[in-house]
Design brief:
The chain contains 2 helices and no strands. The chain is mostly helical.
Length: about 80
């Protein structure tokens, strides 16, 4: 009785699906990072132009942009079902 060895070749469909998932979720992470950085830089610019000593706009816009990005990510994840 001979035993067959399991195939050593990876399944190309499975690898493609994994690669797409990695690309999608890493893209979501970069989207969140970009939103936070946009809030920081835009807020710092507004603080500089308006002459505010504390980073009021920087903090406010960073939190606002982050919440917007999180909501967008939430909507994207709901559509994945």
């Amino acid at each position: 009785m001979q035993h067959k060895k399991p195939s050593q070749e990876p399944n190309p469909d499975r690898n493609t699906a994994r690669l797409r998932a990695v690309a999608k979720y890493s893209g979501m992470a970069f989207q969140l990072l970009a939103a936070c950085l946009a809030g920081v830089f835009l807020g710092r610019w507004i603080d500089k132009v308006s002459g505010v000593e504390r980073p009021t706009w920087a903090v406010f816009l960073t939190v606002l942009f982050m919440l917007g990005a999180l909501y967008s990510l939430y909507r994207q994840l709901l559509n994945d079902k």
